[in-house]
Amino acid sequence: MPIDVSNIAQLGSLEFLARQIVEGFITGLHKSPFHGFSVEFAEHRLYNSGEPTKNIDWKLYARTEKLFVKRYEEETNLRCHIVIDKSSSMYFPVRNKLDFEHPNKLWYSVYSSAALIELMRRQRDAVGLSTFNTDIDLHTDAKLSRTHINMMYAELEKLMLPYDKSQKTSTNAIQSLHKIAEMTHKRSLVIIFSDMLDNLDSMEDLFAALKHLRYNKHEVVLFHVFDSLHEQKLEYENRPHRFVDMETNEILKLNPSDVKEYYEKIMTDKKDELLQHCYQYQIDYVEADINKSYNQVLTSYLIKRQKLI
């Protein structure tokens, strides 16, 4: 379901936008092979034989002919933890104003995370949030409460700013992921949004950080956020361009057409290496192309969730 929106201010809040994404996603599920996923009953769960009948929702039974009981605040199906890389490279491609239909990598991660929080809320999954660049800026425990969810939306909205080249920040995903592995004490589904551009020359240390999460018994889904047209395929006009590194300010002048074939091979090899190591460490790898629908993130989450519940 398309959403006609150019900025959050038109909608009033990121939470409202997240609800629109999820409502459209759920509508699509009913017409897809995934229609069996339980996303309908936010405040209910199936009745188990032998339980007291006092909490059965009989009105819901009249509509569905299935027995559901009302959930309580302390009940949760799953603990999830969303991790967002907010380094300067995540602001690519540079946008001068918020654009829902054409986001940069960070905004795509924020929109996706907000939709995930809404979907988790409906399914009574406790959720926490971490953000990092050179170090961890934010880390919360996974909770269910309305106050906690409001706080996470507020923190996500703080990331919805245009790129400021005077505020460049590099990435230390390795150190940050190690810290998150130690700070997340209860076994969780850890969902990471990152362009994975930290230390490309030698990715072994980065893989070790991801392995640390698995060693601590966490399930991990890595959403590899990228722009397939510009970052993977180097789709630019056939003329000289001036490329500026968003984290180091290093400048490179060249005609992309001259190196396109060689560049594509390098990027394909790096992505294949990442995929291979994720498979080795039993980490779910998902391509999160910012040119595609947010539904790719929600669908991947639901598939993983169904395997864990």
Task: Describe the structure concisely for a colleague.
The chain has about 300 residues and is α/β, with parallel strands linked by helices.
Question: How do the strands and helices of this protein lay out in sequence?
Answer:
Elements: H1 8-11, H2 14-29, E1 44-46, H3 58-64, E2 68-70, E3 79-85, H4 105-122, E4 126-132, E5 136-139, H5 146-157, H6 173-183, E6 189-194, H7 204-215, E7 219-226, H8 228-232, E8 241-244, E9 251-254, H9 256-280, E10 284-289, H10 295-308
Parallel strand pairs: 3-4, 3-6, 6-7, 7-10
Antiparallel strand pairs: 1-2, 4-5, 8-9
Task: Describe the protein's architecture and organization.
The protein is of the alpha/beta class and 309 residues long. The chain folds into 2 domains: 8-70, no CATH class; 79-308, von Willebrand factor, type A domain (Rossmann fold, 3-Layer(aba) Sandwich), CATH 3.40.50.410. Helix content is 40%, strand content 17%. The protein contains 10 helices and 10 strands. Strands 5-4-3-6-7-10 form a 6-stranded mixed beta sheet, sandwiched between helices. A hairpin with a 6-residue loop joins β8 (241-244) and β9. α2 packs across α4 (105-122), α4 (105-122) runs antiparallel to α5 and α6 (173-183) packs parallel to α7. It is elongated, with a radius of gyration of 21 Å. Residues 1-11 and 34-42 have low confidence and may be disordered.
